[in-house]
Amino acid sequence: MLRSVFAALATIVLTLVCGVPALVLSLVNPRGDWVLRLGRPWARGICAAAGVSVSAMGIENIPMDRPVILISNHQSHFDMLALLVTLPRPFRVVAKRHLFWIPVFGWCLSLAGMIPIDREKRSSAFQSLERAADRIRGGEPVLFFPEGTRSRDGALLPFKKGAFVIALKAGAPIVPVSVSGSLAVLPKGSIRIRPGSITVRYGAEIPVSGETLDTKERLIERVRAAVAQGLAAPARPAPPREVSARR
User: Fold this and answer.
1) Domains defined for the chain, CATH in brackets
2) What is the pLDDT at residue 43?
3) What gap in Å lies between CA 138 and CA 115, rounded to an integer?
4) Is the Cα dihedral 68, 162, 42, 247 positive or negative?
5) What is the C-alpha separation between 197 and 211, in angstroms, rounded?
6) pTM of the entire structure?
7) Are 201 and 178 in contact (CB under 8 A)?
8) What is the pLDDT of residue 121?
9) Most buried of 24, 59, 151, 245, CB within 10 angstroms?
10) At what angle do helices 78-86 and 34-50 cross, to 10 degrees?
11) In this structure, how many other beta carbons lie within 10 angstroms of the beta carbon of residue 244?
């Protein structure tokens, strides 16, 4: 429990130390991606305080010069930290609206151009997805957690359709992302953080050409199978590709 308290205190301190400068710099230079630049040391610091190491595989599957949609499973609050640590380029994420209400953290999300979504309100959710489509058309990667919530036991939940409709409308390929180990660190419904290791696997790009809105269910199953395959793979990140959150 002491580890959880220490990690919670570290999160508060790091949010202020990294978040306040990010807010100020974002207001001065909105195009500087300051929230994401300072978000990486913020995420590394929290992981280090929690005794969590993060490694990545398949980073070469992330295109650096064109838009892509990232589709990830979701087991823990530490998933986002692991993605911040390992993704090699700036990205945007579609996240639950209530996260944007958190002081400093939520303000940073807004200034970084992250996209709030309220799935309980259909019209609002549609507008959020359209904003995501605009981001993608503008050349930015956008991250979705299509399960809509964290899995309690690590099993993949059904994928919601919104991200795939946007992929088809934007014509952007999909990179499946599999985050393993975060459930053991902080499962849904728990406040106790346990030291451990998280592995992020970026799978091979899945094109959407040839698919239509009428065949989106086939695309969803294909992507879901790729995410599941990444989760089932052994945790053996190659040393040259390893990204440590403790550095």
Assistant:
1) 52-241 (3.40.1130.10)
2) 95
3) 14
4) negative
5) 37
6) 0.86
7) yes
8) 65
9) 245
10) 120
11) 14
Take residue 126 and report the two structure tokens written for it: 């549609």
Q: How many CB atoms lie within 10 A of CB 16?
A: 12
- Residue 235 has a pLDDT of 62
Does the CA dihedral 27-28-31-34 come out positive or negative? Answer: negative
What is the CB neighbour count within 10 angstroms for residue 78?
Answer: 25
Distance CA 178, CA 127 (A): 27
Collapsing DSSP to helix, strand or coil, 117 comes out as: strand
Encode pLDDT of 48-77 as tens digits.
999 999 999 999 999 998 889 999 999 999
User: Quick one: average pLDDT of 164-192?
Assistant: 93
d(CA 218, CA 198): 30
Q: Identify each DSSP E strand in the chain by its residue range.
A: 52-57, 69-72, 92-96, 115-117, 142-144, 174-180, 196-202
How many residues are recorded in the chain?
247
What is the reported pLDDT for 241?
42
Task: Note the pLDDT tens digit of each residue in 100-131.
Answer: 888 888 888 888 778 887 766 666 666 777 77
| pLDDT number for residue 96 | 80
- Residues 129, 200: contact at Cβ < 8 Å? no
Average confidence (pLDDT) over 221-230: 96
